[in-house]
TrEMBL record:
Record function comment: Removes 5-oxoproline from various penultimate amino acid residues except L-proline.
Endpoints of the signal sequence: none
Keyword field: Cytoplasm, Hydrolase, Protease, Thiol protease
Keyword Amino-acid biosynthesis carried by entry: no
Catalytic activity, as annotated: Release of an N-terminal pyroglutamyl group from a polypeptide, the second amino acid generally not being Pro
Compartmental location: Cytoplasm
Protein's name in the database: Pyrrolidone-carboxylate peptidase
InterPro entries: Peptidase_C15, Peptidase_C15-like, Peptidase_C15-like_sf, PGP-I_bact-type, PGPEP1_Cys_AS, PGPEP1_Glu_AS
Classification via PROSITE patterns: PYRASE_CYS, PYRASE_GLU
UniProt gene name: pcp
Length: 216
């Protein structure tokens, strides 16, 4: 049996919900193709997020880990290409911490690439009618912090065969109603997108070789 770990974040920045956790928890226990999905809620706190991730990996020994986070302002599901070794908080985390220009892991590489088939995920999401695009920046807040920590764990203390990466999702409509002009996506669509992302990640080992770049 293959274990799949999906993580979503607690609400942050005075919001009442976080769409990443609302979507991820809906998939807890979902089974497909010999795999079982396990959902874990992660604190939006530098440092604590990585400790919680490590504990979940140690508990489940998953072969696939996908972190999910909110990207307010984006209109598409965006699998992330690269995690960078940089914490630079535009706002404080939920513990009041605001690191500026600090490494996620001192002495670690400057960055890691996702080991998910990000272009195949985008292809399959678009084929299902769900807006999607490759993202080349996961930011410098706790989402990137978790993403980098995950990829560093895979590089230095791997579970055999484990692959991982990170996906950003838009606001939910109930969040966007307070932010005129902000794009959003329904919870049902996000859940459907994550089902596709998991299935594609299990099925596809070598990513597509097609354009997914951006001019800026």
């Amino acid at each position: 049996m293959v274990n799949v770990l999906l993580t979503g974040f607690e609400p942050f920045d005075k919001d009442a919900i976080n769409p990443s956790w609302e979507a991820v928890r809906s998939l807890d226990g979902w089974r497909l193709e010999g795999a079982t999905v396990h959902a874990r809620r992660i604190s939006c706190v530098f440092g604590a997020a990585l400790r919680e991730l490590d504990a979940a990996i140690d508990e489940l020994r998953p072969q696939l880990v996908i972190g999910v986070g909110q990207a307010g302002g984006r209109s598409e599901i965006t699998p992330e290409r690269v995690a960078i070794n940089m914490d630079d908080g535009r706002i404080c985390d939920n513990a009041g911490c605001q690191p500026i220009d600090e490494p996620v892991v001192a002495g670690a590489p400057v960055g890691y690439f996702s080991s998910l088939p990000i272009k195949a995920i985008v292809r399959d999401l678009r084929a299902a009618g769900i807006p999607a695009a490759v993202s080349n920046s996961a930011g410098t807040f706790v989402c990137n912090h978790l993403f980098f920590g995950l990829m560093h764990r895979i590089a230095t203390r791997p579970v055999h065969g484990m692959r991982g990466g990170f996906i950003h999702i838009p606001y939910l409509p109930e969040q966007a109603t307070r932010l005129p002009g902000a794009p959003s996506m329904s919870l049902d669509a996000v859940i459907a997108a994550l089902r596709i992302a998991v299935a594609t990640s299990i099925e596809v080992r070598e990513d597509l070789r097609e354009t997914g770049g951006q001019l800026h």
